[in-house]
Every structure is written in structure tokens, then in C-alpha cells.
Amino acid sequence: MTADSGVLLLVGSVARPEDGWGVEEVFRHCASALGEYVTMLPDGEIGDRNQWITYIARHAYHENPALQTLSRHTYEEWKPKDYNDQWRFAVRDGVEEIYFEKIGYAGEAKASYEVFRGLRDAGVIPAGIRFLVAYPGTESAVRAFFGSAREFELVARAYNDAVAREIADLAAVIPHEDLAIQFDLARETAAVEHVEFNFADADFERLPHDAMERYCVSVGELAAAVPQDVWLGLHVCYGSLGHKAGESPDSAHYVPIRDLRVGVEMVNRGAKACGRSVEFVHMPIQFARGEQDEHYAALKGLDVPDARVYLGLIDSRDGVGGAMRRYEVARRHLSSFGLATSCGWGRRPLDESVQDLIDLERDVARGVTEAVAEA
Question: pTM of the predicted model, to two decimals?
Fold first, then answer.
């Protein structure tokens, strides 16, 4: 890694509602333990964003005049119980154009940035660290909620337009040297892995049937909204909603991660589709295969020379020792990279302490720093 690449990436969500942390607590806890090892800090995606894409259903899709809510959910009873209990919407008859005044993430981010700036001014957050704001990719934000390709295409166009306006709003308020934007690619990854939600990919008329091509189109449209001097990142995601207590994050994935071939192809092609620099990328691994050499072989084909690369090698079940064993195996195929967990922590089982996860990341970062120094 280059000197400014950071040892760790906090993928996005941090605390759960049950932890009782606010934005300030997230920043303080993470900066205190990890400030010397990160180049970006998220606000933890707390509050309604803990449910991540469901935030969009509640705050943007529900009660939009162009859409009709089909599922049991209401503004008050809005949280899904599992993957099969998601909000469902339909585009109303005769609607050919949809407009979202906002998605809502920008408003949350602007409020959090004021906390971030205050803590940095007070010396709690080290100078030079950027504020990380994540947005779901287009397929992630839309696919779970609609029952037809036509509806997807109408809503996706409106979503991308709203996200572009929100990013412009953020960039007008937050100094560009303080800002990083990450696109979370959960349903995109599932689609590339041939998991079809709600309708067949063959039903698309305007968008490509091929999931990889469709992802490249959408990420290119989203990236066009990010100013050149704002950092841009891509997070390949296999899902975290179904994480079971006592098990590794493997239990939460849409499909098992066979190896890193899909992740490498997604960041390679996605970075090119962005049409601008990509400053960081993140890929999870399958922990059950995490010490198998062939699991990482595809990293030799990684082609994002200007990006910081982070691999999701940290698992609370086997701590520093497990992370360092996986790190050494991965280093046979990629000499320089940072570490992370496989996803954010907001949907982790409650028996996993957030503070313990932060402390684990600190201890892993120390181990990686020592390993690099000795190499």
C-alpha cells in the first residue's frame, strides 16, 4: 500500500439501534481506536439507515404519488423481518415518468458532517481523514421493491437522477477534500451471481439483460455525479441481513463466494465504467475458504492501479490470528492491500459487541503494520 492508503476500511454501518450510539459516539469510538489506521470515517449509518435500502422504501418510495404500496408495511410498521418480508411497490397505471425530490441520505450526511467537522476541529478526529458517505447502487436500491422490469427501469432512472442531485448538494456543502462517496453493490453482485429478484433479467427492454453490463451502465451514471476531487469507492457486497448468531458472515450471503473472480471482475469493469478515477474498492471473502490459496488467485488479474484495495478478511470468531493467516495467504497474490470486515456491522447479531469489533480492527491493523514493516 502507499503511505496514505490506510490499513483499514470501515465499510459503512457501525452501531445497531440496541447499542444506543449516536453519530458522535460512532465518530469518537472509531477515531479513538482506529484514527491512525483509516483514511475515511463513516457516521455509522445509524437510525433508519440501519435498515439500509429499506430507508429508501420508507422515505422516498412510500407515499410517492407515482407509486402504490402493495405490502403490509406502513411508515410506522416499516422494518422487514427477513429477505422475504420486504416492502413491495407498483408503479401506478399510466405513469411514464417518476420524480423523487430526494432519497434522503444527503440530509443525514450533511447533519453528520457538522459533527465530524466539530470533532476534527477539537482534535478527536485526526486531520486528513475524509467523511465517508455510502449510497446503494441502482439495482440495490430498486430491485427488491418492484415486480417487473418495466417498473424497475422507470424507478431506476428516477433514483439515479435523485442521487445525482443529492451528491451535488453534498459537494456544494462539504469541502471536496473532506468527502468520499461509496457505492454499495449488493443486489448488483447478486445479479452477477445469477440471483434474480422478483422478475427475470430477460424482461428488461431499455437496460442490458446481462447483469454485469447492467451494473456497468448504472455505476457509470452514478459516478458521473461525483466531482473529480471527491474520492469514489466501490463496495462489492454479498449481503449481511441474514447473519446468524454464532456463525461467520458467510451465513448472511445471497450465495456463497466461490472465490474472488466475480469481485475482481466487478471492480475492474466497474472502475472503467466510472469514467474517472476510483480511489478505493472493497471485496469480501468466504471465510470457510479464507485460508485456501486458490480463493485469492483472481487477485493477480486486478486492474485498478490507482485504487486502494481492501479485502474483507476480519472475522470476530477467530480474531487477530485468523485475519493474519488470511492476510498472509492473500499476499501471495496481491502484495499491497488493506483490511476490513466483509460488510458493515449494523445487521450483526447482538451477541457481537461493537466496541469489541472496533478493538479487533485496531489489533489487526497493528499486526498488519508490523508485518509490512518486517517484509
Answer: 0.96
